[in-house]
Structures are given as C-alpha cells and as structure tokens.
Amino acid sequence: MFAPYFFFLLILAYLYPAEAHPRPRIPPNKVKTHSHSRRLQPAEISAPSLAPNLTAQLSSLPFDLGPSLPPARNTSLTQLSREEIPSRCLAFFNAPGSTSATTECVDTPEANGTLQLTAWDVTYEDCGALQPWRICHCGQAEMSLDTAIDRLARVPVGLRRFVGLVMVQPLNPLGDDPSDNTPRAYTELESGEIHFFGDAQVDTWVHESSHAFDFSNYSSPISNSTGWQSAIAADTCTTDTYAQSNRIEDFAQMTVTLVYALLHSNHTPPGLTVSCMQNQFDFVQGLAAYAPEMLFGNTCDLGDEDGEGNGARHTEAPATLDATRTFSIVPLDPSSTAIKTEERARNGERGNQSRFSWAMYSIGLLLLYVGN
Ligand SMILES: *[C@@H]1O[C@H](CO)[C@@H](O)[C@H](O)[C@H]1NC(C)=O
Ligand SMILES: *[C@@H]1O[C@H](CO)[C@@H](O)[C@H](O)[C@H]1NC(C)=O
Ligand SMILES: *[C@@H]1O[C@H](CO)[C@@H](O)[C@H](O)[C@H]1NC(C)=O
Ligand SMILES: *[C@@H]1O[C@H](CO)[C@@H](O)[C@H](O)[C@H]1NC(C)=O
Ligand SMILES: *[C@@H]1O[C@H](CO)[C@@H](O)[C@H](O)[C@H]1NC(C)=O
Ligand SMILES: *[C@@H]1O[C@H](CO)[C@@H](O)[C@H](O)[C@H]1NC(C)=O
User: Fold this and answer.
1) Residue 55: phi, psi to the nearest 5?
2) Cβ < 6 Å from ligand 2: which residues?
3) How many secondary structure helices (H) and strands (E) does the chain include?
4) Bridge partners, 79 (sequence order)
C-alpha cells in the first residue's frame, strides 16, 4: 500500500508570507522541532545526507516565485460528484476523533451532511484538455480552492504536466496541535500525488512538482542518475539547508533555483553564488525538460513522449492556446533583442513573438557570459 519510503516531506521555513511584504521566517530551530510523525509517518527515501560534503549557502531559499509567474487566464473547473471523489482522497479523510495515521482532513459534524472534502477537475489554457488536473480540497484548508488553482497554474507547464492528484489540506486537521503552523507538502513519488498543508507558496508547488518530474520514470529517478551524483561529487556547496537533506531534495531545490534564474535573466537568487554548485546547476539546466521553451512553452503538448518527458501525466493542450500568457522576465541588455536566433518556441501560436520568446534568446546569451 503506502510504503513509507514513497513519501517525502517538505517542511517549509516560511510562515504565511504576504506578497507585498518581506516574508516572515521561522528560525531554523523552530522548523527542526516541527514533527508530523504521528500523522503522516513520512520517511525520507533512503539517500544519504549531503551535509558532510556540501555546505549550504542559505538556511532557506529567500524568494517567492509566485509573482514572477503568470496566473491562468482561462480555467475550466468541474466539480466531481460525491461518488466520484477519488478513493485516494477519501483515504486521508476521516471522521472526527479518528486516530488514523492518515487523517489529513476531517468530516466535521457542523458540515450537516455536506462533505468537507470536495474534488475538482481543472483545465488550464495551456494543458489538461484530455487529462485535467484533479484537486481534492478539504473545507478546513487554509488555502482556498481558488488559490490552489492559481498556484498550480503558476507552476511552469513543463513541470506541471508531471503532477498527479493534488490534495489541499489544513495544517492541523484534528485541531490538537496549535504549533502545527508551518505550511508544508509532500509528494508520493511513484504517482506524482502531492499533498499540501496550509498556505504553501508557489515555491513549494514548484519544488514538489519537480519531485513528480524527477520520479516520473520511477525505476530511474533523475536524482539517482550518475550525472546528478557526479555533479554533487564535483561541487562544494548547494543552495540551502533543505537541499542538504539528500540528492532528491537537492535536485528539487536546484530546480526552484533554476526557475528563479530563468525568470530573472539568469540572475541567481539573492545570497546565492553558482560557482561552488556549478556542476549541479549545469546539470539541471541541461535537462531537456528544463529548456525554457519546454518549461514555459505555454503548452504541455511538447511532443517529447519518446524522450525525457516520458512519464508526463498531462500532455494534451486545449485546441486554442492563450498566446497572451507570457512570463515576466526582467529584461536584459536591450541590444540582445537585436540578436537573430532560430525560433524555438513550440507553443503552437508561432505567429506571436511574445516578450517571453525574445527573453529566451537573452537567457541563452547571458548563459554564455555566466559560463565564462
Ligand atoms: C561524500 O564524499 C565522500 C568522499 O569523496 C564520498 O565517499 C561520499 O560518497 C560522499 N557522500 C555523498 C552523499 O555523496
Ligand atoms: C476558454 O477555454 C474554453 C475551454 O478550453 C474554450 O472553449 C474557450 O474558447 C476559452 N476562452 C477564451 C477566451 O480563450
Ligand atoms: C448545520 O445545521 C445547523 C442547524 O440547522 C446550522 O445552524 C448550521 O449553520 C449548519 N452548518 C452548516 C455548515 O451548514
Ligand atoms: C525508465 O528507466 C529505465 C532504466 O533507465 C529504462 O530502461 C526505461 O526505458 C525507462 N522508461 C521510460 C518509459 O522511459
Ligand atoms: C539508484 O541507483 C542504484 C544503482 O546505481 C540502484 O541500486 C538503486 O536502486 C537506485 N535507487 C532508486 C531509488 O532508484
Ligand atoms: C501578441 O501578444 C500580445 C500580448 O502579449 C498582443 O498584444 C499582440 O496583439 C499579439 N500579436 C499577435 C500578432 O497576435
């Protein structure tokens, strides 16, 4: 059934960040004392800690990808009937007082026969035509359904297409642990099923989505490849304390860092230098699935089913793509717009050279500089 090593827990060092304000942070010692073992029983997949070999540059990643990623413009949402609620969601939904280890959402008596748990199919303008994302939302969850739909939309489609079932759960379903206040999430690695707790920000969604991608060929995870392990062995640092956990978390945090860099004209996040983690950064950047036109191509119909993208769970885009959905990239040297580069966008709306397209060329250029 749920072999514990399939589970994976991310404890975030962020507490209810407000977009307009600096994000309040929980001191690292607080995070470490935070335990969910009674309920979730998550266990790290068995991979050794990287802490002896790689120093952490930061205690946590100090940015929010959310505002840099565009919201969905045209979302189609369908509520599933009570009978259609996935059994996987019901498995984490229990009566009040249940001592089940898997209680993540509680059917409270106040609900008067209306389930706290609802399930939804969502299609975005760039993906989900035949395989919508399915989201189970617990009525007690701090994150509203609308917010969850928005955050999932902001996960670049090249990663989002690997995400399986999504569950949005409250921080503290049994109401018995007031210290249970750190938004967090975990991914069931084999199915790409992601459980969010509390108001988990877009960084967390990207982090978990990259686990789904990493393990999309479950018998051959990318983070277990010799290429990734050699990159780790050749470097002296990583991004942050969480990345030090093991090569899987390191891969996810490096993915978040790469997405930041791609969206910010290849500027690394504040406080991070690439040189001591150059091999890891180059590895993730070299993945075909992480090429900007794959990540941000505005469609999940990427035609790469024979390659690395094999294992994507959503591959059909709606017939009409929204070409106006662009990714905000901090512009570089304006002269780079004059560079003629082969058209690489694959979003099916080739006529429109959006801001993103030329920005992709700029990234390519800047990478040459950074590589020197
Ligand atoms: C850390 O480095 C040592 C020595 O090079 C190596 O034997 C070990 O496998 C490394 N650990 C990890 C987790 O990579
Ligand atoms: C929104 O999406 C629906 C279904 O995918 C489509 O039929 C409709 O034309 C779209 N509307 C716009 C304005 O793009
Ligand atoms: C449940 O029923 C009671 C009594 O009819 C009512 O006061 C309460 O608002 C209802 N709660 C919900 C969630 O509908
Ligand atoms: C998954 O990885 C294994 C081992 O590398 C490989 O043999 C297999 O072809 C891969 N499966 C897919 C669907 O790519
Ligand atoms: C990682 O690769 C090794 C061989 O290099 C293999 O023995 C091990 O089972 C793999 N682990 C996972 C989780 O795939
Ligand atoms: C391209 O998209 C922009 C919005 O990003 C829009 O204003 C413009 O009209 C579009 N151009 C074409 C040729 O469709």
Assistant:
1) -80, 155
2) 74, 76, 123, 318, 320, 322
3) 10, 11
4) 120
CA 253, 258, 261, 263 torsion: positive or negative?
A: negative
Residues with CB under 6 A from ligand 3: 110-112
d(CA 361, CA 320): 25
Cα 104 to ligand 3 centre (Å): 23
DSSP 3-state of 195: strand
**Atom of ligand 5 at shortest range from CA of 224:** 1
- Distance between CA atoms of 12 and 248, rounded to whole angstroms? 16
Please give the number of the atom of ligand 6 that sits closest to the Cα of 353. Answer: 1
Ligand nearest to the CA of 110: 3
Distance in angstroms (rounded) separating the CA atoms of residues 355 and 316: 24
Judge whether 212 and 187 are in contact, CB under 8 Å. Answer: yes
Average pLDDT value for residue range 197-224: 95
Q: Whose CA is nearest to atom 13 of ligand 3?
A: 111
- Pair of tokens at residue 329: 């990239």
pTM here is 0.78
Q: Which atom of ligand 2 is nearest to the CA of 318?
A: 5
**pLDDT computed for residue 72 by the predictor:** 86
- What confidence score (pLDDT) does residue 265 get? 85
* pLDDT tens readout for residues 185-210: 999 999 999 999 999 999 999 999 99
Residue nearest to atom 3 of ligand 4 (CA): 220
Angle at 146 between CA 163 and CA 92, to 5 degrees: 55
Give per-residue pLDDT as tens, 32-42: 222 333 333 34
* pLDDT band at residue 307 using 50, 70 and 90 as cut-offs: low
Determine the pLDDT at residue 139. Answer: 94
Lowest mean pLDDT, pick from 64-73, 99-108, 251-260, 271-280: 99-108
Q: Is the CB of 217 under 6 A from ligand 4?
A: yes
